[in-house]
Amino acid sequence: MTVDDHQMVHDGLRAMLRSYGDQVRIVGEARDSDGALQAVLDHEPDLVLLDVRLRGESGLDACAKILRARPSCRVVFMTVYDDEQYVYQALRIGASGFLLKDVTGAELVGSLMRIAAGEVLIAPMLAGRIALSAARLHAGEFWPGAHLGLTQRESEVLALMVSGLTNKGIAARLTVSEETVKTHTRGIYRKLGVNDRVTAVATALREGVFR
C-alpha cells in the first residue's frame, strides 16, 4: 500500500511497478494519516510505503498508528528527505526500511522483497552516514538529546523549557515565532513519548539529557 500526499507519486509507483506484477501488487493507497490507517485495516497489506511528511502531518506519527493497529505490517519510508535523524526516528518506532525516491523499479522491488523476508534496509547512500553518526553518538558527540532523536533546535527548545521559559520567552530567546516554538514542542513530545510540558521536562531530567 502507498501513502503519500501527492497523487503523482501514487500514479508513478503504479506505473513503475506494473511490470513487476508477479512480485508486487499495490492493493490500496492513502493521502493522509487517517486514510492510511483505515486502508491498512481494510486491505491488510504486507508492506506500506510511506512518506516522512504528509500534508500537515508527520509520516512518523502515521507509522506509529499503523503498527499499533497491525503490528505484523512492515512499514517502509520512501522519501526525498535524506536526514539521518529521520532514519533514527523511523527505526525507533518500528519501521522496517528507509528508502529514497530516486530508486529504480528493480531496486525498489528487490528492497521490498528483502524487507518482506524480514530484513531491515536503509538506502545505501544513507547507510554510511548512519554508521558514522551512530559512532559519534556513542562517543558522546552531537547535542544533548540527539540519542533520543531530537534535532539540535529541538534540544535548544527543550533546554529552555527545562529552565522554565514560556513559549513566548523561548521564541524571544531564539528569535523565532511562537508558532515555530510550538512546532518544535510537538516534535519533542512525540520523540519523548509525552503529552505535556511538565512530563517532557521530567523525562529530560530523568534521562540525563542535560547534565
Automatic annotation (TrEMBL):
Database matches in Pfam families: GerE, Response_reg
Molecular functions per Gene Ontology: DNA binding
Keyword vocabulary terms for this entry: DNA-binding, Phosphoprotein
Superkingdom in the source lineage: Bacteria
Domain Response regulatory: 1-116
Modified residues (4-aspartylphosphate): D51
Boundaries of every HTH luxR-type domain copy: 144-208
SMART domains according to UniProt: HTH_LUXR, REC
Stored InterPro entries: CheY-like_superfamily, NreC/VraR/RcsB-like_REC, Sig_transdc_resp-reg_C-effctor, Sig_transdc_resp-reg_receiver, Tscrpt_reg_LuxR_C, WalR-like
GO biological process: phosphorelay signal transduction system; regulation of DNA-templated transcription
Protein name, entry field: DNA-binding response regulator
The organism of origin for this protein: Planobispora longispora
